[in-house]
Amino acid sequence: MTSLCQPGWAQPSGRFTLSGTVRGARGEALPGASIAVPALNTGTAADSAGHFSLTLPAGRYQLFVDFIGYERLTRELNLTRNQRLSLTLAESRNELSEVIVEGAATLKDKLQSTQMGVERLTIREAKLLPALFGEVDILKTLQLKPGVQSGGEGTSGLFVRGGSADQNLVMLDNAVVYNPNHLFGLFSVFNSDAVQSVDLYKSGFPAQFGGRLSSVVDVKLREGDRQQYVATGGIGLISSRLTLEGPITKDKGSFIVSGRRTYFDIFTRALNEANKDKENYSPIPDYHFYDLNAKANYALGEKDQLFFTGYLGRDIFGFNSPGGFNFDFRWGNTLGVLRWSHTFNPQLFVNTSVSVSNYKYELANKFDQFSFGIGSDITDFTARTDFDYTPNERHHFKAGAMFTKHLFGVGNLAANSSDGRIDFGAGVNYQGLDGGLYASDNYKLSDKWQLEGGLRLSGFQSGQNTYFGLEPRASARYALNDRTSLKGSYAMMYQYVHLVSNSGASLPTDIWYPSRLSVKPQRSQQLSTGASFLLFEGKYLLTNEVYYKWGRNQVDFKDGAQLFVNEDLDDEFLFGKSWAYGNELYLEKKTGKTTGWVGYTLSWSWRNFQPQRGTQGINGGRDFHPTYDRRHNLTAVLMHQLNTRFSLTASFVYSSGSATTLPLGRFGVQDIPGSSTGLDPRPVPVYPDRNTYRLIPYHRLDLGVVYKVGARRNQDITLSIYNAYNRRNAYFVYFEAIRDKNNNNRITSFQARQVSLFPIIPSLTYNFRF
């Protein structure tokens, strides 16, 4: 640990700036670390790069620095000039103290912050919780927070405060991730070994974020060990992963490379090979996914540092039949970010980055001599600059600008034959220019009042269409006392790109489409207010938030819309409004052997699409609930440290059934070609309004045991039990025809059948660090 003092000057009030960076023993930045000066009852939290800044009166003080999983650092200060510190925290050796170190400091930071509706998830917490097939998933862990709904059984999709899946801005080190899912949404693309932290914003969005309506998921990768070379990994039921990290130059730069791969395909290929000569054997489709994360950083000097982040992920699904029919389906993300961080002085920092992000899918069929393929993609080229300025203890300014060029490949098609007699293609490509300017100030008016105001000017241009949006943001916190605070926030958001999907889930074949012609930018506004309480000597934080959100220009589709390879896709859209409101109650404990949280959400989500464009709209213009509307949602998470080796974990989820559309009845029409028998009338379903039925309530209990092995406790064996009491939750419902075998096999009735995806699933994972 070193202290670097820069020449300074006494400010008129005799106050000086204390700034610096908080890092772990391996050189990794510690975003969210708590820096406190108890004698002055003041402090701050490190930003996403580990930077902090405080303005204090001259004098001698004790400085305390805390971060979960690290020993508390105590530093004696004699503040007579502006100082810049490089603070290094040692990893906690006593596992029992791991949950104590963070303690009241983190909960008090949340109490005092003006920011509402934000949740920070540490990977240490995520790795303790039970996981499906033993695969730690940060997006599934976020589903355990109030106000966040899942897309269905086992999926990692997020539906936040009444918003759809495409209204979440998912960012990896400042680059947009357009499809954050593997395996059709069952797992996220984020490898837990490479992730440092995850921030989820549900309301009061900071002005630096824009482009989506419902939430921001800000994922930061680890920077790697600056002191020694380390290997980390795990072997699980369906996948294995390996991470290598170490110094590029000791104390100046480091790297981390992390890879993960599933091995479904290894078993299915072996099974297909063993049965290939059997008559009437149907081969099992081939599927696997992999991803690769990389990050490097290097200090060019005392004031400058370079960072590089890269990601490559692919899902590969294939089927080869003995009859010559081949099916190949690939999709995934690729991105790269280069960032330069510069310190002008202890009060002023700037981060400048350029990035490229691409998502695409390719689906190819081949039968005998004929091949057919469709695909879609979106590519972003982005440049952005963000300034961070703290002139004194009362103000914290942020300002910046960003510019993105979008390339949209919408529904491209190609077909050809080996003899050249068939060869054609179709599809359409668009471009879009996206820009934003923002400024914000976090102003500490007094010990009781703290305000944050921001303004974002956004714009988008595609073809002959240009749009602008002015997006005000405001938050306020009033401290009734040192254990109780009241908060409120308002935010307006614009969304200029839209996900074209005809299902309730986010599928790989969904298409991103720009605002153009009749497709106007979506817009939302959200008001929220709440109260926070520190209870039982600061060991518990209780929050209660109420919100109301309303949106315009929401996008849906005509009945029977043609979404694939349609060069006039604008004509398939319908436009309407949405609104959602609810109450979120949250109790969190961060200290002691037993930690965790309980969250309960009571909410309503609505949509309305009036008759338009030669249609009756949706439901004839009547209000309806989207599929992800859930009235009640309860989550409980418990983590208990038995001793230095054993940890017990449990999570419970309960939610009302999702809205769905089922046929009200059927009528028979005779003499229709294709009926099962010539005598049967063909049953035609009669559907009521959209989403008028509810599936059964969803609930599930997951259990886990973590056993640390080795003298240094650097290995563990994790047992997870998903769906411990074997609840058969509804994935979807279909109707089965009941026939009378004694009466020419006629259909006499229909019976509803429920499809459940996951029974009880135990899994064992071995994790290591050397």
Could you describe the 3D structure shown?
Belongs to the TonB-dependent receptor family. This is TonB-dependent receptor. Its main location: membrane. It is a multi-pass membrane protein. It is found in: Cell outer membrane. With 770 residues, the chain is mostly beta strands. Among the domains are: 92 residues, Sandwich (Immunoglobulin-like), CATH 2.60.40; 363 residues, Beta Barrel (Maltoporin, Chain A). It is 5% helix and 58% strand. It contains 4 helices and 47 strands. It has a 22-stranded antiparallel barrel. Strand 37 and strand 38 form a beta hairpin. The chain is globular.
Notable features of this structure?
signal; mainly beta; tonb box; 47 strands; TonB-dependent receptor; cell outer membrane; 5-stranded mixed beta sheet; globular; Immunoglobulin-like; 22-stranded antiparallel barrel
CATH domain topology of the domain at 290-652 = Maltoporin, Chain A
**Would you count the extended β strands for me?**
47
Distance between the termini: 24 Å
CATH class of the domain at 290-652: Mainly Beta
Residue ranges: pLDDT <50 for 5 or more in a row? 1-13, 94-104
Indicate the structural class: mainly beta
The biggest sheet, with number of strands, parallel, antiparallel or mixed sense and barrel status, is:
22 strands, antiparallel, barrel
Q: Which word captures the global form?
A: globular
Mean pLDDT: 85
> Architecture of the domain at 290-652, CATH level 2?
Beta Barrel
Which percent range fits the helix content? under 10%
Strand content: over 45%
Radius of gyration: 28 Å
In CATH terms, the superfamily of the domain at 290-652 is: TonB-dependent receptor, beta-barrel domain
